[in-house]
Specification:
It is built from 10 helices and 12 strands. It has helices spanning about 140-145, 150-160, 185-205, 235-240, 245-255, 260-265, 270, 300-305, 320-325, 350-365, and strands at about 1-10, 20-30, 40-45, 55-70, 75-80, 105-115, 120, 165-170, 175-185, 210-215, 230-235, 310. Strands 6, 7, 8, 9, 10, 11 and 12 form a 7-stranded antiparallel sheet that branches. It has a 5-stranded mixed sheet with strand order 2-1-5-4-3, covered by helices on one side. Strand 6 and strand 7 form a beta hairpin. Helix 2 (about 150-160) crosses helix 3 (about 185-205). It is globular, with a radius of gyration of 21 Å. The relative contact order is 0.14.
Amino acid sequence: MTKYKLEYIWLDGYTPTPNLRAKRRSRNLMRFPTLEQLPLWGFDGSSTMQAEGHSSDCVLKPVAIYPDGARINGALVMCEVMMPDGKTPHATNKRATILDDAGAWFGFEQVYFFYKDGRPLGFPTAGYPAPQGPYYTGVGYSNVGSVAREIVEKHLDLCLHAGINHEGINAEVAKGQWEFQIFGKGSKKAADEMWMARYLMQRLTETYGIDIEYHCKPLGDTDWNGSGMHANFSTTFMREVGGKEYFEKLMKAFETNREDHIAVYGPDNHLRLTGKHETASIHQFQLWHRGPRRVDPRAPQLRQQRLQGLSGRPPPELPGRPLPDRFADPEDDRVGSDRQGGCGPNASGKESKIRSARAQALADRFVLGACI
């Protein structure tokens, strides 16, 4: 028998942005555990904004498990939060509401800042560093410092060890700003892996005295880029059929439901989506078909040759679970016309109202980041 260290991980009830929480237990097992071997586990919801003090019991239900490369015999356990009966999803459990679709593929590009001593890594104690320009995909100490690359490469290794499909890294436009990319197939799986990648990054940077800042515009109204979490997505129909006519209908559906999407893209987007610093205006759905960086959504030019996928650009703190749920609707040539939860141009008034109410409910509880 081996004593396995099981790190139970979940999202708390803070608004508008939930925080990652974790606690560990040990369990004697013959081999690396399966989900079926992992018990429910209670916690004090009154300390996580998920219960009142007079009735504080909440329950963690394991839903995904990953090897932990930073621990001997360690396992990372993604959990949903349940009511005390262990069966009813908690009000803050948005994963339980996802319209899951195994044929939906997501490529998330998580942008963030390293923060140390209350400012971006590499910023002087007063004022600003040299203007933006050399930092994007930069190389050398003056551009990326002495520790950031070490962190992002360790993070890559941890994700790969966990079986998370980490697909890339680059330094971003602002000093101290970086990006990593996660690819997942299936709405819930993609969102789970994005949250676990975030957890691994935040846990890793504890040892460096560094925090991760996901806010979409942490430097405010300055000449410094904000952060986004671009969400590339496709469905089975988009990949296998696609075509100009279908994509034009799809874009019309997105345009019609622009406000519903903004509602689940996280807080403070009006600070980032200004039309400056490679963003579109929050008030305008711009043309998508030529791929300039100031439109949203966009079809990069390589993809336009086949018209089989799209890239949206929500902010980095996006909770991630609402996002796959919003994107998973247009799954066939009806563009969501009569599917459950459809939001396409032919959706009934009743279905549209259901989707709008559902989007608002998600917006009430979630904030960012591309993922669950």
